[in-house]
TrEMBL record:
Key words, A-Z: Acyltransferase, Transferase
Broad class of enzyme this protein falls into: transferase
Gene Ontology MF, one: acyltransferase activity
Organism: Nocardioides zeicaulis
Enzyme Commission code(s) on record: 2.3.-.-
Domain of life where this protein originates: Bacteria
PROSITE patterns, per the entry: GNAT
Taxonomic lineage from the root: Bacteria, Bacillati, Actinomycetota, Actinomycetes, Propionibacteriales
Cross-referenced Pfam families: Acetyltransf_1 (PF00583)
All residue ranges annotated as the N-acetyltransferase domain in the record: 1-160
Record has Repeat as a keyword: no
Protein name: GNAT family N-acetyltransferase
Length: 163
């Protein structure tokens, strides 16, 4: 699949909010309570405003993946690690990487990951039970480090990649 990667513009906030809601429903159905997905969808306007603020402030490095026909099919966000630096973690955190289920296996996720972090050491959090995501990250050199944290949506597991 041909994909164009570009930083978001504030006017992309609505499409990004819709994509973020859609990909959560695709990736997490059966892994999080349905009520979580329904509640997120009900607050769509807040999500759009949140994305507009993030984009305007430049508070994370976000990349959007657009298909050849102009459809938004994925995004990634990276930034300085939010975990305790005393843990010896890489300084870069992959905060999000999502693609539409319709483009799974087409290279969009790989393109986003490569553009976002290249070969850099980094870490991320993955929802327990998300076998597809865990396998994807393992193929890109990430390993589970045994650290977990409970979140409102479920248990998250940390994965780290070091050169």
């Amino acid at each position: 699949m041909t994909v164009r990667l570009a930083p978001p513009r504030v006017e992309d906030a609505g499409a990004l909010a819709d994509l973020h809601l859609d990909v959560w429903e695709e990736a997490y159905a059966g892994l999080v309570p349905e009520s979580v997905l329904v509640e997120r969808r009900a607050r769509r306007d807040e999500r759009e405003a949140g994305w507009a603020g993030i984009i305007a402030r430049g508070s994370s490095d976000t990349l959007l993946a657009w298909s050849a026909d102009g459809a938004l099919v994925g995004f990634s966000s990276t930034g300085p690690g939010r975990d305790d630096p005393a843990e010896g973690l890489p300084p870069l955190e992959l905060m999000a990487l999502y693609v539409r289920a319709s483009v799974y296996g087409t290279g969009v996720g790989h393109a986003l990951l490569t553009a976002a972090i290249g070969d850099s050491d980094a870490y991320l959090w993955v929802l327990d039970g998300n076998v597809r995501a865990t396998g994807f990250y393992e193929r890109h050199g990430f390993v589970l480090d045994g650290v977990t944290k409970p979140e409102d949506v479920g248990l998250e597991r940390r994965m780290v990649r070091r050169s």
